[in-house]
Amino acid sequence: MAYINSYKAPEVPTLLPGYYGPDPYDINWVMPLGPLHEATLESERVKLTPFIPSLHAKKYAEQIAAHPELHHYFPFNPTTLDEILTVIELTVRRDPTWILFAIIDKAHGDDGTFAGMVALVNALPPHLSVTIAWVIVFPEQQRTYVASNAIGLLLQYCLELPTGTGSHPERPGLGLRRVQWTSHTANLASHATARRMGFREEAVMRWMYVIPEGMEGNGIALRDADPKWPMPGRDSLVFSMCADDWESGGREHVQRMIDRRR
Questions:
Q1: Helix axis angle, 188-197 relative to 251-259, nearest 10°?
Q2: Are 177 and 125 in contact, with CB atoms under 8 Å apart?
Q3: Band of the pLDDT at 261, cuts 50, 70, 90?
Q4: Distance CA 231, CA 92 (A)
Q5: 8 A C-beta contact, residue 51 and residue 25
Q6: Is the domain defined by 38-176+249-259 classed in CATH 3.40.50.2030?
Q7: Is-contact 156 40, C-beta < 8 A?
């Protein structure tokens, strides 16, 4: 029997200079429909709010220009404002399984300080799972409460049931069964953060990403005629926190991390 393959790759520009997205900004997030659970995404000291390029992209670009090491272990490396705007629009906003949050440090100024970013990616609603990624805390806020609060809030948002807990029904979550964390096998700081927050180490995923030329890969030589030569490959260490971990002490551990004074 004859067959055909009518797939056509979507035609998208390689660069969207100066494009800050639609107004009002549509986060285009697959779950839940409607507003986010804002109360669950805020602690005493930190708030997560959707990353809106017109508000946040310029400062992000300034931080990357001043501290390019923030992208050292990432599978992508936008460096200019236009490159950042393009990645946020094409990779994040147009993919409903991704959402990018700005981390707001509430301790500074009336409206707080933009302190970094964090994303939920590769959401699988039928399987109740998602991955935490794009974790960046700007140098001024590193080694403080900011990272533990931001990651802890996302874990609460993902793993709490839609009814919340008995004592906190006002803080509902998505009721997911699995939250995943992956990081470059050489990124020891990321591994330490995952373990500190209570994630369990699972496995090494070899050749998980093709990454830009010049970035740190897995050090393994590519085959002749590799379709993506000379772009290296990245191996990732995989961690997870699941619903049963959450209900057997994970919730309390994460709350302690959020409440710690540094």
A1: 110
A2: no
A3: confident
A4: 22
A5: no
A6: no
A7: yes
112 in Cβ contact with 104 (< 8 Å): yes
Count CA atoms closer than 13 A to 203's CA, side-chain side. 5
pLDDT at 34: 67
Nearest to 160 by CA among 41, 45, 64, 251: 251
As a whole number of angstroms, the distance between CA 112 and CA 89 comes to 25
∠ CA 30-78-114, rounded to 5°: 65
Global pTM? 0.94
- pLDDT confidence of residue 212: 94
**pLDDT per residue over 124-161, tens digit each?**
999 999 999 999 999 999 999 999 999 999 999 999 99
CA dihedral 87, 19, 63, 188 (to 10 degrees): -10
